[in-house]
């Protein structure tokens, strides 16, 4: 181990602290805001000393928003549920479709396989707005707009390429000989997929699933255009706090806290797994 | 138990033939060693037999049945990979059990089967370990155990001793023939180590550039190599190869070494006057007194004792270097001038242009191709 001087350690600590503050301060500030009324939030100069209130959370949970212009009905919990349902279903469908496809792309080089895989990837770098207008028209004609089915379908544009490409890398990292050995021992290709390929790519599949979940959860523009009030996820639902009588900062903050809690909890829980999984592909053991 | 037959196998990758018209017949219970430098096509051939790679042309028969289009899991072969290819998420027990599970045996039968194989390979004490926790030797034995577990009629071993240390390799080289005998399986064994090939093979198929260059018993390959290349691959120290132009007089065909006429025994008439290479095994040469018939004068350059034998590097009058070996402990010159004699019966002549052996080699190669 190289010797590090005290100064170096202090500087390194300071730099790390700076980075942490930079990224964590907005979260911290929003968390503080969620316990304040609009008045205390907007006072000048701002202060971190205030009388905490749970009124923002109460308004979100009861779904009744008291504003200067009157009472507003906002079904926030419904949008939260929509987010959970849409994200979970989308990731589940994407895993169901993407993992076998990733295996096929990794193991069988067929005519046009690279082209198909690349086309699927291109969904990720085409700006959503590019496809949104034609998609809206199609969905209206097909009767898919404002349905969970339609939304889950569109969410595949986000989840499927992500899962396909990450998981494909994991399958490619598994030595083909290991799979051959299982086949030669007398097992079918499907048994080989289930008993060898899936368990060995497990961490990668989990990491890809988690990433896809976060991406799906954070999606805004697809749901904004293709879903109306009762199918909206939280990202869109939060728009309702921009009311006629002003922006309800307190409620927005509380809504953000509530909406990032599930993904944050999931990410924290799976963090070790995620980092391990994502770096495993790069540095093979 | 089963015979194994390969008929005119051709395999190409990107237009390049890695196997070019390979035909091989392995008798029931026989061990054939595929020997050759890397890139010769040995491993591809083994994978073709296993069914994980399909040939472009030709047929594969196991027990007389055409299995060319049969999937790997139905061929009933066992295979040990060079890199072991153990299932990293399964214990050694589960690894070895996979062929038995595929045969849908009862749990009790699987347990008994795995344990008997493990006992045979002396890994019964590490069965609960994951591959990560096994030493290289134990990994290798586990891989071997997995190949043996289903008692497959055909056993394919892809250089299984490549990745283990020298001591273990030596032990396994002694142990494997006995092990393979108890199995009674038809074995195809791939190796790059000529000693391993000689120790394990009933017959050796020497491969290079996708073709079988010579097929024969270890003795045939060693004593009657078909080409210069094969002669060079077998033997340690390697064979002496000297450019010569044989001539003929009343006593027969002779070559000149250090301006001495050395007469050769053999049907070498066709070599007279052609550019040839003479192959002399170091043990076919011996130090003799200066007045012995056809004694070739040389100067001794260096001497290396190699346990059971002593190898001496000598230089001929025309400056060509030759290795002479003799059993350790026998007297021999250490320096200065000396004379060597050639055992005329063990001299090999090769055509310099083609590398093919001149004389009886063609007959030998054809005969061994048919022998089972």
From TrEMBL, chain A:
Keyword Protein biosynthesis: no
Highest rank taxon of the organism: Bacteria
Transmembrane segments: 12-32, 84-106, 118-141, 147-167, 204-229, 249-270
Domain ABC transmembrane type-1: 80-270
Keywords: Cell membrane, Membrane, Transmembrane, Transmembrane helix, Transport
Cellular component per GO, a single term: plasma membrane
Cell compartment(s), UniProt: Cell membrane
InterPro entries listed in its UniProt record: BP-dep_ABC_trans_perm (IPR050901), MetI-like (IPR000515), MetI-like_sf (IPR035906)
Chief localization: membrane
Transport listed as a keyword: yes
Pfam families tied to this protein: BPD_transp_1
Single GO biological process annotation from the record: transmembrane transport
UniProt topology in membrane: Multi-pass membrane protein
SUPFAM superfamilies (alphabetical): MetI-like
Entry's family note: Belongs to the binding-protein-dependent transport system permease family.
Stated name of the protein: Carbohydrate ABC transporter permease
Organism expressing this protein natively: Kumtagia ephedrae
TrEMBL record, chain B:
A cellular-component GO term for this protein: ATP-binding cassette (ABC) transporter complex, substrate-binding subunit-containing
UniProt xrefs under InterPro entries: AAA+_ATPase, ABC_transporter-like_ATP-bd, ABC_transpr_MalK-like, ABC_transpr_MalK/UgpC-like, Mo/tungstate-bd_C_term_dom, NA-bd_OB-fold, P-loop_NTPase
Cited CDD domains: ABC_MalK_N
Domain ABC transporter: 4-234
Topology versus the membrane: Peripheral membrane protein
SUPFAM superfamilies named among the record's database cross-references: MOP-like, P-loop containing nucleoside triphosphate hydrolases
Keyword Nucleus: no
Cellular localisation: Cell inner membrane
GO biological process, alphabetically ordered: carbohydrate transport
Entry similarity comment: Belongs to the ABC transporter superfamily.
Protein name: ABC transporter ATP-binding protein
């Amino acid at each position: 181990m190289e010797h590090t001087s005290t100064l170096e350690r202090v500087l390194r600590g300071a730099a790390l602290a700076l980075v942490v503050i930079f990224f964590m301060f907005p979260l911290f500030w929003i968390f503080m805001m969620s316990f304040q009324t609009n008045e205390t939030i907007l006072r000048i100069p701002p202060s971190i000393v205030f009388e905490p209130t749970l009124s923002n959370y109460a308004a979100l949970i009861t779904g009744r928003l008291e504003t200067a212009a009157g009472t507003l009905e906002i079904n926030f919990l419904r949008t939260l549920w929509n987010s959970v349902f849409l994200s979970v279903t989308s990731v589940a469908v994407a895993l169901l479709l993407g993992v076998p496809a990733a295996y096929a792309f990794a193991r069988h080089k067929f005519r046009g396989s690279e082209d198909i895989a690349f086309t699927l990837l291109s969904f990720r770098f085409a700006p959503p707005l590019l496809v949104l207008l034609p998609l809206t028209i199609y969905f209206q004609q097909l009767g898919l707009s404002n349905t969970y089915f339609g939304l889950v379908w569109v969410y595949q544009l986000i989840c499927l390429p992500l899962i396909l490409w990450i998981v494909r890398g994991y399958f490619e990292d598994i030595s083909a000989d290991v799979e051959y050995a299982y086949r030669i021992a007398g097992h079918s290709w499907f048994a080989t997929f289930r008993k060898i390929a899936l368990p060995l790519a497990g961490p990668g599949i989990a990491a890809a699933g988690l990433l896809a979940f976060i991406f799906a959860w954070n999606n805004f523009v697809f749901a904004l255009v293709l879903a109306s009030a009762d199918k909206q996820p939280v990202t869109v639902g939060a728009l309702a706090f921009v009311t006629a009588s002003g922006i309800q900062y307190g409620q927005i903050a509380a809504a953000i806290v509530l909406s990032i809690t599930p993904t944050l909890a999931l990410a924290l829980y799976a963090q070790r797994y995620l980092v391990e999984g994502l770096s495993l592909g790069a540095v093979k053991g | 138990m089963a015979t194994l037959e390969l008929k005119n196998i051709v395999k190409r990758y990107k237009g390049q033939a890695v196997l070019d018209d390979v035909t091989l017949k392995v008798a029931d219970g026989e061990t054939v060693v595929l020997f050759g430098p890397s890139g010769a096509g040995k491993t591809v051939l083994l994978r073709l037999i296993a069914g994980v790679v399909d040939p472009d042309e030709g047929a594969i028969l196991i027990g007389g049945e055409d299995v060319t289009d049969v999937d790997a899991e139905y061929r009933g072969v066992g295979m040990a990979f060079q890199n072991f290819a153990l299932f990293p998420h399964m214990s050694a027990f589960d690894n070895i059990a996979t062929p038995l599970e595929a045969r849908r045996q009862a749990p009790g039968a699987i347990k008994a089967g795995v344990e008997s194989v493990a006992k045979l390979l002396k890994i019964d004490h590490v069965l609960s370990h994951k591959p990560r926790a096994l030493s290289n030797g134990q990994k290798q034995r586990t891989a071997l155990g997995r190949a043996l577990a289903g008692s497959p009629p055909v056993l394919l071993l892809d250089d299984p001793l490549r990745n283990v240390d020298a001591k273990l390799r030596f032990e396994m080289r002694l142990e494997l023939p006995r092990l393979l005998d108890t199995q009674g399986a038809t074995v195809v064994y791939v190796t790059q180590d000529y000693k391993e090939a000689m120790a394990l093979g009933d017959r050796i198929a020497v491969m290079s550039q996708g073709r079988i260059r010579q097929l024969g018993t270890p003795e045939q390959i060693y004593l009657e190599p078909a080409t210069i290349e094969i002669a060079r691959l077998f033997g340690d120290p390697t064979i002496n190869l000297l450019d010569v132009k044989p001539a003929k007089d009343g006593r027969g065909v002779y070559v000149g070494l250090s301006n001495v006429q050395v007469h050769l025994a053999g049907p070498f008439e066709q070599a007279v006057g052609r550019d040839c290479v003479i192959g002399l095994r170091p043990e076919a040469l011996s130090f003799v007194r200066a007045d012995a018939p056809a004694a070739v004068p040389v100067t001794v350059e260096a001497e290396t004792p190699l346990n059971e034998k002593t190898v001496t590097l000598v230089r001929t009058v025309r400056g060509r270097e030759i290795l002479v070996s003799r059993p350790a402990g026998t007297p021999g010159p250490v320096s200065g001038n000396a004379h060597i004699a050639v055992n005329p019966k063990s001299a090999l002549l090769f055509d310099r242009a083609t590398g093919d052996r001149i004389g009886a080699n063609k007959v030998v190669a054809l005969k061994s191709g048919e022998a089972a």
